[in-house]
Amino acid sequence: MVLALMLLLAAPLAAQDQLPPAPLAYKQLDDPAQEAKAQALMETLRCLKCQSQSIADSDAPMAGDMRHQVRTRIAAGEDPEAIRSWLVERYGDYVSYAPQNKPIMWPLFAAPLVILLLAAILLRGRFRRAGGNKESGE
Q: What is the pLDDT of residue 106?
């Protein structure tokens, strides 16, 4: 009974893998200029399944769907940055290899500087105390 229930629940997952790829997942655009724009954009977008490859390099079905979306929107005349913004809005900042500077990101960039400053202050105090002990010890 449990096995039959598991098979029933797993059927939609197996069916999803059997879907054909999106029409423009592997087919390039006819206009070389538009394809160049699409390729440049696809190289700066991260595959959400692979996470270490761009959608231009990934063979994951999700990357193929994203390539299809990029090519379709480029063919419709949409600006690559507008497409990037749409994908970031849909999937989050992680999808882009070139994250935007937002106020929430400043602590991420400031934290290493603050840590270095604190380390310098602590080391300075430690060296002063060590130097003072040598002078008083003689």
A: 81
- Check pLDDT > 60 for residue 16: no
Per residue in 33-72, pLDDT (tens digit) is 999 999 999 999 998 888 788 988 888 888 888 999 999 9
Give the whole-angstrom CA distance, residue 101 versus residue 113.
17
* 67, 42 contact by CB (below 8 A): yes
Residue 102 has pLDDT above 60, yes or no: yes
Listed in sequence order, the residues at least 6 apart from 59 whose beta carbon sits closer than 8 Å to its beta carbon are: none
What pLDDT score was predicted for residue 136? 57
CA atoms within a 13 Å half-sphere pointing along the CA-CB vector of 82: 7
With beta carbons less than 8 A apart as the criterion, state whether 41 and 52 touch: no
Torsion angle, alpha carbons of 86, 88, 90, 92, to 10? -170
Structural contact between residues 45 and 98, judged by C-beta atoms closer than 8 angstroms: no
